[in-house]
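Thread amino acids onto this structure.
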């Protein structure tokens, strides 16, 4: 089986876009791929975080991933900071990457545009740590959102450069995108991606929202002044977003879904009903798992042991290739 790796930060609350664009695909991949899934808490500290909240969110996210269908007996589920090889390989790769490459990263430019001089160094080198996350596990496929494609391309460039300079060491990964639901937009600002931030609570459907809340948010989604239901992301972004959500929730294509509607009201109602049913088993399973928090800690310990067994071998190859003296 091909090896696949992906990660998610324990910041904010998991929303519908995360679920449709990433997590649901992970659940499918684990049965056909050698799957590694990581809660990337080191990435989360590139901006100030409350320590207690970060620990709580890390556990909460793990619970939610298991509730969504990740099976620790089938895949490898672990926390990034529990495997020290991530940080060590990141430093080695920082000595291969260039300042120019990192300055071109769109996310850094966006997040530091107002105060680049005071931005954390970790925010600048974040993509190199992400490359280390991927390369440690010889991942062949990396499911990523559209906003992460640039980071994946950097990872490929670093791997190719390292291999050219120091010998064949790393597997060069390919990105994969879900066919439907890859980019779910904010319900109130349909030209902006749905986000885990609290900037638009009414535009973001959280996986753990109650059914009544989900229905209210979707029925109040922004559309436009016309009434025709067509899938046109450029001219009708709000309507296109609803069609994208309903298509992803029901396994169809957005353009096909549009043919069944002539008014926005029924489209919103059907989309709300489909999302409620899609997320219902996740919410119910989460409630069961939350009653035994020690079980998730045990899951993470086992996952870290499995991950470290692979990561240690890759790091040893990289250390030898670049010329670091072995301790033994």
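Threaded sequence (328 positions):
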């Amino acid at each position: 089986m091909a090896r696949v790796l992906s990660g998610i930060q324990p910041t904010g609350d998991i929303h519908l876009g995360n679920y449709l664009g990433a997590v649901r695909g992970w659940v499918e991949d684990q049965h056909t791929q050698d799957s590694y899934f990581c809660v990337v808490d080191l990435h989360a500290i590139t901006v100030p975080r409350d320590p207690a909240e970060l620990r709580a969110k890390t556990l909460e996210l793990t619970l939610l991933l298991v509730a969504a269908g990740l099976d620790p007996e089938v895949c490898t589920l672990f926390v990034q900071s529990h495997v020290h090889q991530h940080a060590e390989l990141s430093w080695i790769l920082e000595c291969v990457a260039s300042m120019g490459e990192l300055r071109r990263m769109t996310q850094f430019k966006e997040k530091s545009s107002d105060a680049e001089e005071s931005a954390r160094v970790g925010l600048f080198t974040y993509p190199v740590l992400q490359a280390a996350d991927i390369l440690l596990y010889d991942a062949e496929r990396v499911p990523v959102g559209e906003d992460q494609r640039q980071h994946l391309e950097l990872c490929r460039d670093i791997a190719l450069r390292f291999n050219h300079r120091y010998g064949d060491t790393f597997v060069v990964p390919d990105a994969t995108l879900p066919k439907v639901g890859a980019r779910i937009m904010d319900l109130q600002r349909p030209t902006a991606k749905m986000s885990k931030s609290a900037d638009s609570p009414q535009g973001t459907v959280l996986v753990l929202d109650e059914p009544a809340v989900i229905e209210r948010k979707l029925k109040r989604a922004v559309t436009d002044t016309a009434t025709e239901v067509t899938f046109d992301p450029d001219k009708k972004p709000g309507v296109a977003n609803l069609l994208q959500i309903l298509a992803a929730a029901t396994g169809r294509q957005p353009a096909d879904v549009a043919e069944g509607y002539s008014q926005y009201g029924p489209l919103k109602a059907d989309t709300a009903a489909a999302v409620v049913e899609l997320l219902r088993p996740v919410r119910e399973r989460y409630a069961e798992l939350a009653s035994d928090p020690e079980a998730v800690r045990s899951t993470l310990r086992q996952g870290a042991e499995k991950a470290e067994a692979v990561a240690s071998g890759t790091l040893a190859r990289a250390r030898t290739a670049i010329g670091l003296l072995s301790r033994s």
